[in-house]
Design a protein that fits this description.
This protein has 2 helices and 17 strands. By secondary structure, the chain is an alpha+beta fold. The N and C termini lie far apart (77 Å). The N terminus is likely disordered.
Length: 239
């Protein structure tokens, strides 16, 4: 048989070489271990989000539209679709624009031509001519989205270029009538979207584009609503 040793100073009784700790010490150790585990989990999640943003950032562009002369008419964002310069954005971003200027993440600026636009779908395709291959993102499957999964918006709100905001997928399949357009099957998220975000990318934690940021709903009666941002699912946008 082993020795029985009583260690009163440490309040730890060792019987047959097994240490039996008091409950309060056990709970303390368990709390510390769980805290460490949670900290590592948070770090892992943050790293995942950072890497996701890196994958997509350079494929998001800033859009300025002009009416006459140098007067800026509107601002927005876009997502590069092809290496040779086709860009997807919202139709309302370029509505009534006489000139459209695209700025890449590198700071380079290009005039853009409007290839086609659908006011009903609020989508438009632009084209720029560059002598280099442009970065394009990976596109996710917006049909497989789940409530609560991470959603990250990248765009150029209020001329704050390449702003990143994050939240979750709050709801799916939303139908909204807004400024004369009936939007179907929208993704709702609490990731902040502001004027200038329209046309930018909504991405998941894998760095895949899952939607095109389109509008923030402030309500018709309660005009101070917050956290009601909406995006067109990428599967519908690419049809």
């Amino acid at each position: 048989m082993g020795r029985k040793i009583e260690i009163t100073a440490a309040n730890c009784r060792i019987l047959r070489y097994n240490c039996i700790l008091p409950k309060n010490i056990k709970f303390l150790i368990l709390f510390i271990l769980l805290s460490i585990q949670q900290a590592f989990s948070l770090i892992s999640t943050e790293v995942q989000i950072i890497e996701a943003i890196k994958k997509v950032r350079d494929a998001v562009v800033s859009i300025n539209t002009y009416s006459y002369g140098e007067e800026i008419q509107g601002i927005g964002s876009g997502v590069i679709l092809t290496h040779d310069g086709y860009i997807l954005t919202n139709a309302h971003v370029i509505k009534k624009a006489r000139n459209i200027i695209i700025m890449l993440s590198s700071g380079e600026k290009y005039p853009a031509n409007l290839i086609k636009a659908s006011a009903d779908q609020d989508l438009a395709i632009l084209k720029i001519n560059s002598n280099k291959s442009l970065p394009i993102p990976q596109f996710g499957d917006s049909d497989k989205l789940q409530l609560g999964q991470i959603a990250i918006a990248i765009g150029n709100p209020m001329h704050f270029e390449w702003t990143v905001t994050s939240g979750v997928v709050s709801a799916l399949g939303r139908k909204i009538n807004y400024k004369g357009i009936t939007y179907e099957n929208l993704i709702q998220t609490d990731a902040a979207i502001n004027p200038g975000n329209s046309g930018g990318a909504l991405i998941n934690s894998a760095g895949e584009v899952i939607g095109i940021n389109t509008l923030v709903y402030t309500g018709s009666v309660y005009t101070h609503a917050q956290g009601l941002s909406f995006a067109i699912p990428i599967k519908a946008a690419l049809k």
